[in-house]
Amino acid sequence: MISVIMSVYNAGDYLKDSINSLLQQTEKDFELIIINDGSTDNSEEVILSFHDERIRYIKHEENKGVAHTRNEGLKLAKGDFITFHDADDLSLPHRFERLLAEFCCEHIGYVHSDMLLINENDSPFSYWQTGNISPDDIYPFFLNVGTPFNNASILFRKEAVENLYYDESIKVGSDTDFVLKVAKGGWRSSHVPEPLYLYRRHQMNLTKNRSYDDLAKHIQLNIKEENLKTLKEVGEDVENRLLAAKLIAGLALSRRWMTREGYALFYEAIPLVKTERDRRFFEGMKGLVEKNYAHAVHHFQQIENRNHLEENYLGEALLHMRKYKEAYDQFLRALQLSPNYHTPVKNLKVIGILRGYNLIDKHADPFR
């Protein structure tokens, strides 16, 4: 059985269609836990208009927040699988059946899909594609991009979320923080490359008027030293591992909008610089952050017998300078030194995309 947890707060305009999209699933074995989180509109009226024994209704007199209601749902859930469904979104009729079919192995802890984005008038306006990613790559992806999944589309095996809860102190990004907690369990994911979930974007659910700290808190909670020490990219053979981890994470965050946290990691790394090699690597990474790529290349090239990290980030500096062949050579050298190092593989992909991109899926071509 699947437990579907739906937090509702003033979603009356979309709630009927959202609930119907669940009750009309081809997979019938599920419970729908609806938690009305202090709504002041007609949400309760809409909920009570449904008479289906699979619905379990809980009402809050005051708003406690989506993280709190999802935690309440997790405690109430009786299913072998768990998913969260926003009260303004829609699921395609075969979504649950399609996702369940992917749980073919015991090590798969969660299955996710692509999403079609729709607006308040049910008009599609964008497509969010995702893919499979290994457990070791999830934390680096989080630093560089954010969550590697369409979080709203995920169906979890219950064992994967056992004793895990949302951090109620996080106002933005609590779902990403939750997925990271699941990923730390070493569970593998499976991806369905179809838009099984229709994610609604409208004025009420757009992130706005949030403070920087609200937006950044889930990042701040996940860049502590105990997290950075798990960064597989560094490798066991790098002597000053914490220095490397702080600089790699600092670079990743500075390339996003998290410049304050990125720069803070660089400042924290300064006392860890002990040798001339450390200094050269620090200066090279600093050049990447400051977009002074000639400076970065100069310092990386001064390092003798470069390790896999130094070769890769030298390649990244050259790639920024559009020196594709030289960057290509550096990424290959990094892989020769560390065949399981994933970052240069991703950088080879970047070179290919920059030079020319071909999508095998040609379904859209006739309609262009």
Automatic annotation (TrEMBL):
It is an enzyme of class 2 (transferase). PROSITE patterns: TPR. The lineage of its organism: Bacteria, Bacillati, Bacillota, Bacilli, Bacillales. Pfam families: Glycos_transf_2. It comes from Ureibacillus suwonensis. One of its GO terms (molecular function) is glycosyltransferase activity. Keywords: Glycosyltransferase, TPR repeat, Transferase. The keyword Glycosyltransferase applies. This is Glycosyltransferase. Residues 3-146 form the Glycosyltransferase 2-like domain. Its EC number is 2.4.-.-. TPR repeats lie at residues 308-341.
